[in-house]
Specification:
Layout: H1 18-24, H2 32-41, H3 43-48, H4 53-59, H5 62-69, H6 72-90, H7 95-99, E1 109-112, H8 128-143, E2 147-152, E3 160-163, E4 169-172, E5 184-185, E6 195-200, E7 203-214, E8 217-223, H9 231-234, H10 245-265, E9 272-276, H11 282-295, H12 299-308, E10 310-313, E11 324-325, H13 327-334, H14 337-341, H15 345-351, E12 361-362, H16 363-370, E13 373-376, H17 379-388, E14 403-405, H18 412-415, H19 418-427, H20 452-480, H21 485-491, E15 500-505, H22 521-529, E16 535-540, H23 548-558, E17 570-573, H24 578-587, E18 590-593, H25 605-611, E19 615-619, H26 624-627, E20 633-636, H27 645-669, H28 677-693, H29 696-718, H30 721-737, E21 742-745, E22 759-767, E23 776-786, E24 790-798, E25 800-805, E26 808-816, E27 824-831, E28 846-847
Parallel strand pairs: 1-2, 1-9, 2-8, 9-10, 10-13, 13-14, 15-16, 15-18, 16-17, 18-19, 19-20
Antiparallel strand pairs: 3-4, 5-7, 6-7, 7-8, 11-12, 21-22, 22-26, 23-24, 23-27, 25-26, 27-28
Length: 850
């Protein structure tokens, strides 16, 4: 039977027309006045719709809309919010406009990510990666940064967690009704839905494009669930990270190659592409192919342009977390594609190999080889990442590996409570107008001027709201499971806002160690059951549907939920989502984080808690290495290495219990005039220090200054055919002549003793083959050797060219001995060209022979 479809849109009275725009631009998700207006329309629908005002407007009966159109108070509120929105959208004095250079006025960055957490009404996210991507776009909008997003439109939304009576996690996948969500179909010049086509192993697949307005910027989402596609092709975008390996690579081809083609079809031509994790790295191949065709270049020439203008952010601190595909799967989808790239298939495979005998094609490796700008998401993660991928630069000291870091942040306006927003609005803004907590708008040191009682009362309001939410969710869960009214009545009395409340909420991956606080149940019982200084725990989180170990952790934690042995002071909240996260970070006293170091790349939930005055109690991992000092929170354990996992868990659990029993709990319950004044002082110090630093406005500024500016300038430089041809000739000469490069350190015979302050002269004889001295740098590397040859720390100093000696060249330099002790040094030759961002990919280096 053939069926037909049509779409019905809300019929808004003329006076309410502005609601249409306000309900479909995700700006409302970080603007309290807009949120409260939509809540006020119908609070029950607000919660039922998962905070989706477009759905609410479609669900309201027309007589309700008519009444709103005749309500002068509502119309005044609507007019005020629309005026604020219009001012925001048209505002020209943004951070970017005030700080950009003249040659950056046409900059555009395309940001690709598999998931985006912008709001609950747009369920295309799973965890921290999506939250970060969403916050990235929101800050780009606030700062006027020219960044657009590209992702996938999933037919099934964010997985819903359902616990059975045995506390085992099961999953539900609700269908998304995109016509009632804040998205719109992108249309071509003729008014038809815009589509691009992909050849997926011989099958022609159509890809539709949807747009999500995110303040001043846009997120474009790709969709294969189209009638003209085969059933298997329609399933590609069914579910985030869904399906088998074949479907996974198809998703990533749609995102990367389809996303690039969609931008081009819309006439959007970014200069810089930012790949957030390796899922979208196939776009780099499509960029190369496009430049080859548009500019009549070969693969290597086009690769130069793409490499010099691409950014790759890695989030994964363990090898198993990186995306690998079997070579046969790559062959299935890319063997014919290689014909268009003008390279043999084995050459394509080399792009995804860490070393010659690699057993799979790694998306991270390909991204690292085809992006000049690579970053980790915290300082410690950078160190971990350099250790993980050292084989790609095996003759380079680890400290020189071209992997930088930009520590993650959070979008402050999205995660601050309404109450804290109003409190800060009155006290810390730098000028009279207060629209947001955007970069540079606030003097966070003024936090200390806020009255302690006002501060604490504000905190207790949020704590009570969290407890109310937890009770309501627990009651619904237990009613669903068939418990009688006596249990439900008890639930309505659990948790006390006056008790020290510890929150733990995140994905239940085993390395995050959700069960560490349960290591010693006797000590845990003493904490919860202490009637003078009780402690209560609120815990939430989901395991990946295929992660049985993570589900076992949930089962173990949930088994303690409402356990009378702990006086019902341990609670597990079912179906953790963005809204539960918001209530938790806004209402707890302590935010607990205890991953296995160094497996937390960054983490951002503790930053969200800090905005609202919660104090962090965490392992020194991820962002907390940079954020911690004893004035703003606590560190569990240290940075030491352990003999085995058992020792590590024992030592760090003991550290957790000791901190709670001896330091944290007594401090919380120490009162002066009925207020925990020392605790409040610590809360204020935490907000003052951490919120100013760990936000996505600062993060975007760093991306802009470290990568986006450079990528844009090198893109323009290499778009000049003469510059590109010159660079291509130089690359070929380097490749052809590198085997002829040799270095000998000439007559180095230092005295037995060299005193500090002395200068040791050096002379090197260098053979360059057919290369010219200006093609290379000759450097002295001075430091300390790690093992036999690679420096574990040191510095490189350029040597001075002195002239020829037969068919060789003479370089001279010196070592300044500022410190006593052993000094190791060597001389090396590396390529040198001002038309590339750096000289370490493709990687060539020669060290001295003697």
């Amino acid at each position: 039977m053939k069926t037909y479809s049509f779409n019905v849109i809300p019929n808004l009275p003329e006076k309410l027309k502005s609601l249409q725009e306000l309900s479909t631009n995700m700006w409302f998700t970080w603007n309290w006045e807009a949120i409260m207006m939509f809540v006020g329309i119908d609070e029950e629908l607000w919660h039922r719709s998962h905070r989706n005002p477009k759905w609410i407007l479609g669900a309201l009966p027309y007589n309700k809309l008519e009444a709103m159109g005749n309500d002068e108070n509502f119309l005044r509120k609507l007019a005020d919010i629309k005026a604020k929105f219009d001012h925001y959208m048209s505002y020209q004095d943004t951070w970017f406009n005030k700080n950009r250079q003249e040659d950056e006025k046409d900059l555009l960055v395309a940001y690709f990510s598999m998931e985006y957490g912008i709001g609950e009404g747009l369920p295309i996210y799973s965890g921290g990666l999506g939250m970060l991507s969403g916050d990235h776009l929101k800050s780009a909008s606030d700062m006027g940064m020219p960044v657009i997003g590209v992702g996938l439109l999933y037919r099934k939304g964010y997985v819903q967690q359902v616990l059975n009576r045995e506390n085992w996690q099961t999953e539900k996948y609700p269908e998304n009704d995109w016509y009632n969500m804040p998205v719109e179909i992108v249309k071509d010049a003729q008014g038809h839905p815009l589509k691009v086509n992909l050849d997926l192993a011989g099958e022609n697949v159509s890809v539709g494009v949807w747009r999500v307005p995110v303040g001043r910027t846009s997120l474009y989402l790709l969709d294969t669930n189209l009638p003209e596609n085969s059933p298997s092709a329609r399933m590609i975008t069914e579910q985030l990270y869904g399906g088998d390996r074949d479907n996974r690579i198809r998703q990533e081809i749609v995102l990367g190659i389809g996303g690039y083609r969609a931008l081009k079809a819309m006439g959007i031509n970014p200069q810089v592409f930012h790949i957030n994790e390796g899922h979208s790295a196939f776009l780099l191949l499509e960029r190369i192919k496009d430049h080859m065709q548009e500019r009549h270049l070969n693969f290597d020439q086009a690769r130069e342009i793409v490499w010099a203008s691409s950014v790759f952010t890695t989030h994964t601190p363990v090898m198993a977390g990186n995306e690998y595909f079997d070579f046969e799967l790559i062959k299935k989808y890319f063997e014919k594609y290689c014909v268009q790239l003008g390279i043999p298939f084995p050459e394509l495979l080399e792009l995804g190999k860490e070393e010659k005998n690699s057993l799979g094609f790694c998306m991270t490796v390909m991204a690292m080889k085809l992006c000049a700008y690579i970053n980790a998401v915290s300082w410690l993660h950078m160190e971990t990442t350099k250790n993980m991928w050292h084989k790609l630069w095996h003759q380079l000291p680890k400290y020189e590996i071209p992997i930088d870091y930009v520590t993650n942040g959070v979008h402050t306006n999205s995660w601050i409570s309404h109450e804290h927003y109003e409190l800060y609005k009155k006290n810390i803004h730098n000028n009279g107008s207060f629209d947001s907590l955007s970069y540079g708008c606030c003097d966070w040191s003024k936090i200390h001027n806020i009255d302690d009682k006002q501060w604490w009362d504000n905190h207790l309001v949020r704590k009570n709201k969290l407890i109310k939410l937890v009770r309501e969710r627990l009651a619904r869960q237990y009613q669903r499971l068939g418990y009688d009214h006596t249990i439900i009545d008890e639930i309505n009395t659990i948790l006390d806002p006056n008790y020290l409340t510890i929150g733990f909420a995140r994905r239940f991956a085993t390395y995050k160690r959700a069960t560490l606080f349960m290591k010693n149940l006797e000590r845990l019982m003493r904490l919860t059951n202490n009637e003078n200084m009780p402690v209560q725990f609120i815990i939430a989180g989901k395991a990946h549907q295929a992660d049985s170990s993570g589900k076992e952790f949930i089962k173990a934690v949930a088994a303690l939920s409402l356990d009378k042995k702990f006086k019902s002071r341990i609670v597990f909240v079912e179906d953790y989502n963005m809204n539960v996260a918001r209530y938790m970070v806004q209402g707890v006293d302590i935010w607990l984080n205890n991953p296995i170091r160094p497996l937390e790349a960054s983490g951002t939930s503790g930053m969200k808690a800090a905005i609202n005055g919660a104090l962090n109690l965490s392992i020194l991992d991820g962002w907390w290495v940079e954020g911690y000092d004893k004035e703003v929170g606590w560190a569990i354990g240290g940075s030491e290495n352990y003999r085995n996992d058992e020792e590590r868990d024992y030592v760090e659990a003991e550290s957790l219990y000791n901190l709670l029993e001896k330091v944290i709990v007594p401090l919380y319950y120490k009162k002066e005039d009925g207020l925990p004044r020392e605790w409040i002082k610590m809360m204020k110090r935490s907000v003052s220090k951490l919120v100013a630093q760990f936000n996505t406005d600062r993060m975007l500024k760093e991306y802009y200054e470290k990568f986006y500016i450079k990528g844009n300038r090198f893109y323009k430089k290499l778009s000049n055919p003469e510059k590109l041809a010159e660079l291509y000739r130089w690359r070929n000469e380097i490749k052809k002549s590198w085997n002829d490069v040799r270095i000998i350190i000439d007559n180095f015979k230092p005295d037995m003793e060299i005193r500090s302050g002395a200068v040791v002269p050096l002379r090197a004889i260098v053979w360059l083959g057919k290369l010219n001295p200006q093609d290379v740098k000759v450097q002295t590397v001075v430091g300390n050797i790690d093992g036999d040859s690679i420096f574990k720390k040191g510095m490189a100093f350029d040597m001075k060219y002195e002239g020829r000696l037969g068919d060789a060249h003479i370089y001279v330099g010196e070592i300044k001995c500022h410190e006593s002790g052993r000094h190791d040094f060597a001389v090396r030759v590396i390529p040198n060209n001002e038309n590339i961002p750096h000289q370490f990919m493709p990687f060539f280096v020669k060290w001295n022979d003697n």
